[in-house]
Design a protein that fits this description.
The structure holds two protein chains of two kinds.
Chain A: E1 2-12, E2 20-31, E3 35-39, H1 46-53, E4 61-66, E5 69-70, H2 78-84, E6 85-88, H3 101-111, H4 116-129, H5 146-158, E7 164-168, H6 176-193, E8 196-200, H7 204-210, E9 213-218, E10 221-226, H8 228-233, H9 235-240, H10 247-257, H11 269-280
Parallel strand pairs in A: 3-8, 3-9, 6-7, 7-8
Antiparallel strand pairs in A: 1-2, 1-4, 4-5, 9-10
Chain B: E1 4-16, E2 22-36, E3 41-46, H1 52-57, E4 67-72, E5 75-76, H2 83-89, E6 90-93, H3 106-116, H4 121-134, H5 150-162, E7 168-172, H6 180-197, E8 200-204, E9 216-221, E10 224-229, H7 231-235, H8 238-243, H9 250-260, H10 272-290
Parallel strand pairs in B: 3-8, 3-9, 6-7, 7-8
Antiparallel strand pairs in B: 1-2, 1-4, 4-5, 9-10
Helix pairs in contact in B: 3-4, 3-5, 4-5, 5-6
Classes of the chains: A alpha/beta, B alpha/beta.
Chain lengths: 281, 291
């Protein structure tokens, strides 16, 4: 039970004069229940790759296996795949449209052809999982704050009961508390349900804090694929491709240079604080 | 009087139900008086819905206050006749660069503003060149905007505003959609404009580490100015900022956590250099006492 991306390449506008290779020979194996961060500069191919995972784009070459089945097989049910792999786009709140929050979240499961009772059960469950206060369920989604709207949009995807959830920059434009709340809720969801999460993010601090594994994309290829402390150890290489490490990494390296014997591979504030207390006391 | 001054301004949104009946009134800006001096670098922080974007839109007469007065370089924004002058004095840059670029070629896009102002062609080209150089995009002048990265596009948007020779630029979360490199490029360009060209910069952002060099920070909450001061004064108040749904730069937070563990560090550390220096002093001190 997993997602295997096997030698996938993708060319935009193949056969036209404007053809451009967006992905080239991608190989990734994502086991069940992992929390994976995807980073890369604008145009590195992250979003293109994500759109392959639920069949919105079809690879020009290569195969994708979901739970052992090739999603490009002629008799593979793409509609089922889209129910199993939920994709939350950037600024998903732009896609809210119903008269109240609850109806909006019901829209997805209703389209799966489920019974009304099951639809409503799923909608309640999804809204509870994203931590939206119950008194907002029957308000217009347009009257909510930015962070609340975004949670409603995520709940809309969760109500489809996906096995894998892909979030494309879910915290862009949110205030710091809003970022922590959304990511904290997603982490909790992953811990409770064992759902596989793919988080595309431009915030190195967020990625360092929440994910188990980081995939670094550059020019349509996978440049690194490792646990956060290993990836951020190569912060100079990350800078060369338009990325960075969390500020903590730079702090620890600066201290090390001054002769303080600290572990430079810590990636979060808590780890850094513990490490410095150990060295200083 | 400063370049932007507001006196007791209030902005009310009227909420209506589906039939158009008034449901209630939301005060998005509530009694705000600020005075921004020419040449300052100002940051405005605040959680989503705190009123900072609404306030920003008063700074070039996109919105007019329900009560109170806004002056842009001495011009009252309620004076319709001054609208063009106000918009030339205070330019605005928004979050999404794709919504702000209209030209097929970078230099055409940047020339759009001065062209609309009726500037002679020769001077337009001069201004385009100067503006693109100021944001470090001159070498891309012949490029198509859709081939640029997010950070590059956003710098073209800024050049487009600069070409109108504003005294002041207001930027509403210009880095929210950018990758780390794009964010760095934009902030570096803004600091250059402020320091070299003397343009007043008013920056709204959710990234705390972008504003450590600002001259002054305003923090908004519920339409009011909840805090104001230098970055050091503001970021010394970690708990208060957190209660306002905000944060501090990672280095400041780390210093704060270390303080809580009993390590004597000064308040409001803003940069890595400051933290390293402070910790160095401590370790040297330790060695002396131990020795």
């Amino acid at each position: 039970m997993s997602m295997i991306i096997d030698h996938v390449s993708y060319i935009y506008g193949e056969g036209t004069p404007l053809a451009r290779k967006a992905l080239s020979d991608i190989n990734i194996n994502i086991p069940d229940g992992q929390f994976v961060g995807i980073i890369g500069h604008t145009g590195s191919g992250k979003s293109t790759l994500m759109q392959h995972l639920n069949g919105l784009l079809k690879a020009t070459e290569g195969h994708i296996y979901f739970n052992g089945e090739d999603i490009y097989d002629a008799d593979y049910d793409m509609k089922k795949l889209r129910g199993k792999v939920g994709l939350v786009f950037q600024y998903p709140e732009h896609q809210l449209f119903e008269i109240d929050v609850f109806s909006d979240v019901c829209f997805g499961p209703k389209n799966l052809g489920l019974e009304k009772k099951e639809v409503e059960l799923r909608a309640y469950d999804a809204l509870r999982k994203v931590g939206l206060p119950e008194e907002l369920y029957y308000q217009s989604p347009f009257e909510l704050s930015g962070g609340q709207k975004r949670r409603v949009a995520i709940a809309g995807v969760l109500a489809m009961k996906p096995e894998m959830l892909i979030l494309d920059e879910p915290t862009a434009g949110l205030d710091p508390k809003g970022r922590d709340e959304i990511l904290g809720q997603i982490k909790k969801l992953q811990a409770q349900t064992g759902m596989t999460i793919l988080l595309v993010s431009h915030s190195m601090e967020d990625v360092a804090e929440y994910v188990d594994r980081i995939i670094v994309m550059n020019q349509g290829t996978v440049m690194m694929d490792d646990i956060p402390r290993e990836v951020f150890r190569h912060y100079r290489e990350l800078e060369e491709v338009g990325l960075a490490a969390p500020q903590v990494t730079y702090i620890m390296h600066a201290l090390k240079e001054k002769g303080l014997d600290v572990d430079v591979d810590v990636t979060t504030i808590e780890e850094a604080a513990a490490e410095l207390v150990r060295v200083l006391k | 009087m400063g370049i932007i001054r507001t006196e007791d301004i209030v902005f009310e949104y009227i909420r209506r139900d589906e039939e158009g009946n008034v449901e209630g009134i939301t005060k998005a800006v509530d009694n705000v008086s600020i005075d921004i001096k020419q040449g300052q670098f100002i940051a405005i922080l605040g959680h989503n819905g705190s009123g900072k974007s609404t306030l920003a839109k008063h700074m070039n007469a996109i919105l007019n206050p329900t009560e109170g007065t806004v002056w842009v370089d001495g011009m009252d924004t309620n004076d319709g006749e001054q609208l063009w002058n106000i918009r030339q004095t205070a330019g605005m840059v928004f979050q999404n660069p794709d919504n702000q670029i209209i030209g097929q070629v970078v230099e055409e896009d940047v020339g759009f503003g001065p062209e609309n102002m009726g500037i002679p062609t020769k001077e337009i080209w001069q201004r385009v060149e100067e503006s693109l150089r100021a944001v470090g995009m001159y070498e891309f002048r012949k490029a198509s905007p859709n081939k640029l990265s997010g950070g590059q596009k956003q710098r073209v948007s800024i050049a487009g505003v600069l070409a109108m020779h504003p005294k002041c630029i207001v930027l509403d979360e210009p880095t929210a959609m950018l990758d780390p490199n794009g964010r760095r490029e934009v902030i570096r360009a803004l600091r250059g404009l402020n320091q070299v060209e003397g343009v007043t910069v008013i920056l709204i952002t959710h990234y705390m580490e972008e504003i450590i060099h600002a001259d002054k920070v305003f923090v908004m909450d519920q339409g009011k100015i909840a805090m104001d001061g230098t970055p050091r004064e503001i970021f010394s108040q970690v708990e208060k900022l957190k209660s306002l749904r905000l944060d501090v730069p990672q280095v400041t937070l780390l210093a704060y956590e270390l303080q809580k563990e009993g390590i004597p560090l000064p308040n409001g550390i803003l940069t890595i250099e400051e933290l390293v220096e402070a910790l160095e002093k401590l370790t040297v001190g330790n060695r002396v006492t131990v020795g």
